[in-house]
Amino acid sequence: MAGLRTVGAIALTLAVLALLKADVSHMVAGAIAAMVATFAIKEKQRREQAVTLALGLPVALVAMSLGALLSTEIVAGDLFFLALIFAAVYSRRFGDRGTALGLIGFQIYFVSLFVRASVSALPGLCGTLVVAFACSAVVRFGVVVETPERILLRLREAFRARLAQLVSAQIELLDAGPERVEKALEDVRRHTARLHQSAMMIQGRLEEGTSDNATALLVQRRVADAEIAAERLGVLILTARSSERADTLTLHLPHAPVPTPGNRLQAKDDMTATLRRDLNALRLLVARPAPNNRGAAVAHLRNRLLGYRDEDNLPRASAPVQDVFRGMGEAARAVMGLRLALDGPQDESDDTPATTRSREELDAENVSIAQTEKTEPVEDVRKGLERPTTRAAVQVSVGSALAIVGGEFLSSQRWYWAVLTCWVVFLNTASTGEILVKGYRRLLGTVLGVVAGVGLAGLVGHHTWTAFALVLLFIFAMFFTAPLSYALMSFFVTAALGLLYTLLNTYSSTVLVLRIEETALGAACGVIAAALILPVHTDRRTDELLGTVLNRLGDVTDAAVEQLSGGPALDLLDMARELDTALDDLRSSTQPLTHPITPLRARRQTARYVVALLETCAYHARSLAATAELLPSSKSVAADPRLRGAGRRIAHNIDVLVARVEDDDSDAVVETGASLASILETDKPGSPRHDRVTHRVLRHLQRLDEGVIGLARPLGVSVATPDRASSRDGGA
Known about the structure:
Layout: H1 2-19, H2 24-39, H3 46-69, H4 74-90, H5 95-114, H6 122-143, H7 148-175, H8 181-209, H9 213-240, H10 270-287, H11 296-307, H12 319-343, H13 353-370, H14 388-410, H15 416-425, H16 432-460, H17 464-481, H18 486-503, H19 509-532, H20 538-564, H21 572-589, H22 591-594, H23 601-628, H24 643-662, E1 669-671, H25 695-710, E2 718-720
Parallel strand pairs: 1-2
Helix pairs in contact: 1-2, 1-6, 1-17, 2-5, 2-6, 3-5, 3-6, 4-5, 4-14, 7-8, 7-9, 7-10, 8-9, 9-12, 9-23, 10-11, 10-12, 11-12, 14-15, 14-19, 15-19, 16-18, 16-19, 17-18, 20-21, 20-23, 20-24, 21-23, 23-25, 24-25
């Protein structure tokens, strides 16, 4: 949608300028200005977008005017450019509006350099900017209309599609033979990660895309339920086709070994056929839109799956295979809850007693969720050079100064390409390693884009409108591929620039080669500035984020265990969302360590292992949080004060890991103990199910305990048992 909106704004700007008989240089300036005015604005509410767009026009006019006035004053122009760069980066501290206005000011000044703006051409260029901003407003608010509600609707459909894809991958895993099981498991991993990404995107849009706080909490809960149920179903299927219980880590660690196959399921036996049939029924329930999810046949499938939540309806099979049927029942319940939250009440005429019970449980949970209070976000209290925006502003300014000096040696006319690259590699990066990887990707995309630009320039020649059409196509491709590959995005940017140079009659192979040289110089200047000026080394950055993830994990676990033990109710899903957000930040920060070009193979494996373990722990923490929130309304889960002891040990171990990350000299040890499943041994024979915590809660606690202890070795923390202490296992 961002690509369509941007291309639409550019196309409308070009059409208006063509009617006004503007020359090519003004059309190029208008096209770039329309692009900037469209993609720079990131606010979610339309009113806020309109205010930012209105404020952006005078910023753009001032930037263009100063660019033209200072075009003959080399020293003054360079000094102003550096001041503008500092202000543009520093303005990010003021949120989306500050970021947008800073980006508009920088990019429009860059446009003045690109089209060689002069004082005599200034009135026409200012008129071009007015046209570009007006066209951007028309497309944004009248043609490609984006509201938070519409975005949330599309995200919901994407989540449904991702969920159906995951179930399809799980069916493939069930049927995969020995030679295909690794590929099938890798597909399950990939689709599980994509489902989680969709869930995080939905949660980021809930406050703006729903009518009230209660609705947002309800949708957030149902999305989390569906994600947890789907991921758990994958683990259960893997366990059913293995000779031992599968570890959740298997779904989070790339290239993890496949569990040893067992003989519980055979490809052609009746039980496998029944599982396959019911998994296909679950996929049908997930994939069909709510209006089409009616009728006796669909109701029959739903009722059959929900019936597996009752012990009496389970087929006669081994315990792991019965767990898969239970998992399908829980997944069907999660899907029904999601549909009720998103689409409202549905036909209940064909409900069975099992379906009615599930509806009653969901209704009771809805009442409990509506009474939950939202937690307030924690503000960043860092000041001065400790603030990331201030540090980045200083680094970019120093790097840009180096790029200006070096770029002048390469070309006195196109030195600004080095500055642009230096600016870009600092966007959305926070450590030296991230900047290095981004610079490498930009250089790779630029080299390939130059090759494409040479060929396209020869084919297009001076066919102006053909060149503009290709530029629009490349701009759309740039936005479409930006979330997927920065190298691909850089490729399309460079190819489009080659066509723009053709339109401006400044194209030559020498110019495109110079583009590569300036890009390499800008990336190098960015890395040098990041490494020498207020550096944030990758190790420091990952340690900070690792500490944050562990703290969030401890918060969620403590609160969930406390509530499961009879303590007060809290907004656990909000806490789980904060954990997921911190984990996503950590995953991004470890990219320099896990990138294929890194020479430190051992560190790459360690980083992958730690992130996978944390993803496993986060999954179990989310599951505990979701189960704990059932307490006020559930008839099958009751508070059990005996969990507090297990919770204390897990909390202590997490605190030890945090102390180790924050202080290398910490000599505290993590403690192991008896299996948490031993809690059940104290139950009296024949005790009713609702008098104790379910086995599933204990399994999540056990896995979480094992995951936290598993983090000790790569972090260099000693492990102690109640009887003896082990020596330190090694370092990270």
